[in-house]
Amino acid sequence: MLRKYWIVVFVLINCFFVCNAWGAEQDSANQFAERIQKRYEKIKTFQAEFTQELTNVASGEVDKRKGQIWFKQPSQVRWETLEPEKELLVVGPEFAWDYIADEELALKYDVATLFNSKTILRFISGQARLNDDFIVKTDWQGSEAVKTRWGKGCIVLQLIPKEAEPGLVMAYIGVEPDTGILRKVMIVDFYGNGNEVQLNDIKLNIDFPTSMFSFFPPEGTTIEDNTQGF
């Protein structure tokens, strides 16, 4: 289900912000990954607009979406898709909600269950580290194709999970060399399907009302409770 992809993407967005430039060329992939991790731990909040492309390899179909995302430490997220259909993902201190207004459906998850999974969801709670959970590369077979697609203005890293899961067998991140800010993320699943997100108009460390990370299903909404696990 495409809704499952949402959870993976927003975590990558939250984990890989950096505000330092790439620096000297002799920096290894692992050194850069460590710098990314340390910078992420200092970020209190961020807001950004996003464009998302979900590619189905079998059918060749590409699902394009646009919206906004807000993040607040510790581990609170509001991901709002505005086009072509409205969908809202809210992660609070205890529960995560995926709300589809047109279907009058709200999916409820336990945050602790999400973070205890072996996916990179654990990054958002500070329970995982790039170098511990991934093989990080700056050059690999086929790297030029990714770099060409994203343009020469990005430093591109490949992340290979040491314990792959069906929803995540490989990931790529693109970072601005001058500002060190993450701009692009792509996740590839077991079937070769791609989930690509580009961030724009990024604002760091601004104030949000706590209410943004709470969700109360409207009257008449069907609630699918997944708090006992998947």
Mean pLDDT: 76
Q: Give me the CATH architecture, please.
A: Clam
Can you tell me the CATH topology?
Answer: outer membrane lipoprotein receptor (LolB), chain A
**Whole-number total of structural domains:** 1
Superfamily (CATH H level) name: Lipoprotein localisation LolA/LolB/LppX
Helix content: 10-25%
Please tally the β strands and state the result. Answer: 12
Per DSSP, the total helix count is 5
In angstroms, what is the radius of gyration? Answer: 17 Å
Rough shape? globular
Give me the strand/helix succession. Answer: HHEEEEEEHHEHEEEEE
Unreliable residue runs: 1-5, 14-26, 118-126
Classify the secondary structure makeup into a structural class.
alpha+beta
Strand portion, in percent?
35-45%
Describe the biggest sheet?
12 strands, mixed
**Strand order across the largest sheet:** 7-8-9-10-11-1-2-3-4-5-6-12
Measured distance between first and last alpha carbons? 13 Å
Q: What is the CATH level 1 assignment?
A: Mainly Beta
Signal peptide: 1-23
Protein name: Outer membrane lipoprotein carrier protein LolA
Keywords: Lipoprotein, Signal
Organism: Pseudodesulfovibrio piezophilus (strain DSM 21447 / JCM 15486 / C1TLV30) (Desulfovibrio piezophilus)
What is the fold's blueprint, element by element?
Layout: H1 2-15, H2 29-42, E1 45-55, E2 62-72, E3 76-83, E4 87-91, E5 95-100, E6 105-110, H3 111-115, H4 130-133, E7 134-137, H5 143-150, E8 155-161, E9 170-175, E10 182-188, E11 194-204, E12 222-225
Parallel strand pairs: 6-12
Antiparallel strand pairs: 1-2, 1-11, 2-3, 3-4, 4-5, 5-6, 7-8, 8-9, 9-10, 10-11
Organism: Pseudodesulfovibrio piezophilus (strain DSM 21447 / JCM 15486 / C1TLV30) (Desulfovibrio piezophilus)
Keywords: Lipoprotein, Signal
Signal peptide: 1-23
